[in-house]
Amino acid sequence: MGNTPNVARRSESSRQAIFAAARELCAERGYGRLTIEAIASRAGVSKKTIYRWWPSKGAVILELLDEAATMKAHHPDTGDLAADLRTQLTAVIGMLAPPQTSALAGVIAEALHDPALAHDLRERLIEPRIAEFKNRMRQAQRQGQLSPDADLDVALDLLYGPLYHRLAFHLGMPDPAYLDTLIAHALRSLSMTQ
């Protein structure tokens, strides 16, 4: 019994090797030049192993991004809404930059042409983070930091829209000073009674 291989441990180590390879290759080559073959070779696994778990490179990267976003881009609640938004938005900016090698920017671009990936991106990565954002904003409303009738869909667009606008048109991600200005203006508009 002691000599029986632990399949779960082997599977998890292969999974982590695949994620590490995909992350490294994206950083080196960019998402567009990423292939399942290159991931398999770098991870030391077969293409068959990857395809057993994921249908495409987009699916591999999406799961990798989901784990990264859970660790890096959560919505803190320190009681200081502006600081918490700065922390969260800075994490998102870090995931989008530089766009040439950002796995997230690559998946977003591919999802424009792949309806199944777009669906999975929304369901797995985007919608849960929107729910977290709205929960954090509702807490701010309860604490009197935002108007109780602030439209949280508009809040989402005011705070995150500029990041994706700047990404789409190659304008560069906001620097810390601009991000602070963006947050201050958005919070000012959301604090006013309608």
TrEMBL record:
Q: Which residues bind DNA?
A: 35-54
Q: Which Pfam families match?
A: TetR_C_11, TetR_N
Domain named HTH tetR-type: residues: 12-72
Which keywords belong to this entry? Answer: DNA-binding, Transcription, Transcription regulation
Q: Which SUPFAM superfamilies match?
A: Homeodomain-like, Tetracyclin repressor-like, C-terminal domain
Among PANTHER family, the record links this protein to: HTH-TYPE TRANSCRIPTIONAL REGULATOR RUTR, TETR-FAMILY TRANSCRIPTIONAL REGULATOR
Q: What is this protein called?
A: TetR/AcrR family transcriptional regulator
The species this protein belongs to is Microtetraspora malaysiensis
Q: What is the lineage of its organism?
A: Bacteria, Bacillati, Actinomycetota, Actinomycetes, Streptosporangiales
